[in-house]
Amino acid sequence: MTQAAGPENPRHIDARITAISPADVATSLGIPTPNTITDLRSRLRLRAPVWDLADWARGSRDTEAAAEALRAADALVADGIDVTGAELGRSQRYGFHYLRWLDPLARAYALTGDERYPQTFSALIRRWEEVRDSLVGQWQGLDVIWYSLGCWCRSVVLLPALAAFGDSLDDDGWLTTLTTVIGGTRWMAEEHTAFRHGNWQLVAATQLLHTGLVLPDLAEAPAWRERGAQLIDEHLALDFYPDGGHYERSPGYHLMCLRNLQLAALADQQYGTGELAGHPRLHQAHRWIAELVTEAGWAPAFQDSPVEWPGDVLLRGAWLLQDPALLQTAREVMPAPLVEAELAGLPPAAATWAETCRPATAPGPSTETSAVALPYSGYTILHTGAGLRTVVNHGPHIEHELESHSHRAVLDLVLDHAGTPLLWEAGGPPHYDDPRYQTWFQAAAGHNAVSREGHQLSQERRASGTHLHGAGFAVFHGSQHGYGLQQRRTVITSDHLGPVVMVRDRAPSTVPGQDEFTLRWHAPTPWTGSGPEWSTAELAVHAIGHEAATVQHLGDARVPGGYGHAEYAPLSSLVLTNTTGSFDTVLRRTASGGPAPQVEVTGELLVLRQAAAEVTVAEQWVACRSADGATHRALLGWAVQHLEWAELVLHATSPVDLTWEAEGTTFMAVVTCPQRCTLVLGGSGPDLELNGIELEPARDHPGEVVLPYAGTWTVTGRHG
């Protein structure tokens, strides 16, 4: 009979994995077959696993986490559970056999020493062992028990349980628990013989190393340790981008991988070489999630991710890596009582170290408009000094063993103010059996982007994005071809008129009237308005370029609330359509203070005016000046060759990025060129300096400056 093809290697499940006897364990230990399981237990060395539940119990007493564990454990004692998971959907059934539902029993025992908990644990895991070989999964070619995630997670649960229960777990329960771990580790070692991308193999590798370190006397343990360490090293080289992001680009799966790398690194520190914690890519992986987290403590829900609260991971990572800056970030994004509670549940050395790293004064929030790129992962974060934050997704589609976690959206964005979401997206589903997983959570309709109706977004999107900041602006400019034509999005943030975000969407090659394009803006609170003016309780929008506008409820999403909480709630969707693919959107907080700017469109120029100042947005530059034009003027340009604004007239022989600021007649231009370039600054006086060096005036071409090679240059002078 031919075995159906699946996402992992052809079936390699036999009695060495599913039917391990006491004699088999004794053979692996190199000892004679014992007369009793009790004798075998006395010969097996189990080192304290990571993370040791004794530490957790010491730090968690009288907390809600402890109460929750006790409630779950008591429910299992009283009511048991259907160990088959038969009532669950296709994907949930696989997750059920991770055996996470057994974990509260071990935690409850660590808290109380109540013998009911190991007794119930033994009864349930032995009942599960009796039926597991008869269970069949619904993913073609993927065993519901013996596959990478199942073998990995059972070890994560069962090794700490073995240590926590100690001698209180009866012999039969002990043997079933131990042999389940050994069988799964054997399966993972045989499965993962060559590198493959993704979280499945990476987390399996961390448990190969961990199990080999905490069960060191098994004959296979050295090979497990070696293979686990090699795979971890390969994944840090090939499965994490140079900016620190995990291959799948999902904050949730990034944290899953990071938590398990932390486990492996601590096990390596305690029992191995200690080298893993010093790996540069592991440090970068912590900084990556630190860049995405808001001051309220959450990271956005891109690519099937839930709303994540990574403060605990940052805190553990800070101690593990001995990184005071990371500790400070954790303290900034996590409530102080939770920081202390988390430290209390770690080995005592963690709290001691953290106490020595307390900063003398906490740094204040940044007052600068800025941009931060995670370029390899495909995210750019724009900040205003007033706390308005935009995160843009411009990365590729990434494959997966079963279903890709990459959503069918690109150049989409989310917007928050000081951690309060203003524009939001569908994010990850409650579970992968949810009937709206493909039609809402992953679909284009669940995202803040422009879609081309009647076309599916291709997996080959040719997405790109660049960023720059200066002159009081931060800009992202990106393009993608996923709908069969080029579409561009430019996002500009500024504090010049109060905190404002300007979004320009363009489809330059479309023929008006032949296509329909839809731009959706999803908000956690209801939209009201008409024409160009729309608002929610937190956000005001001036929309230009649409031919029709409606407000709809398209679906629900997890919306961040208090720290650690994100419940599903309806999103209100402002749906704008046209046949050109070109939309302009101006976004500002309703509570930002001051009057809303007047918005005018003249050709391709978008002009925002207030009494004291105006901002002009063009296709390749944005500028601000006082209403009378007499005081400060500032301009930021990207890939510009020719422009005229105010007294600035610029011509360049190749595209340049430009920051230009002027007070009175004095100006400074910071120019980045990709190669040698000649600039002509029309209207400038003869006294020009390049990087502080006075230049001889150009005889034939006044205002001409040669930038002799690629780089960033500062030109100063006077106009007139």
UniProtKB/TrEMBL annotation:
Q: Which GO terms describe its molecular function?
A: lyase activity
Q: Report if keyword Lyase is assigned.
A: yes
Alphabetical UniProt keywords: Lyase, Periplasm, Signal
* Primary localisation category: periplasm
Source species taxonomy? Bacteria, Bacillati, Actinomycetota, Actinomycetes, Micrococcales
The residue ranges of the Heparinase II/III-like C-terminal domain are 370-531
Please give the name of this protein. Answer: Heparinase II/III family protein
Which species does the entry assign this protein to? Answer: Candidatus Ruania gallistercoris
**Where would I find the Heparin-sulfate lyase N-terminal domain in this sequence?**
93-305
InterPro entries xrefs? Chondroitin_lyas, Hepar_II_III_C, Hepar_II_III_N
One matching Pfam family is Hepar_II_III_N
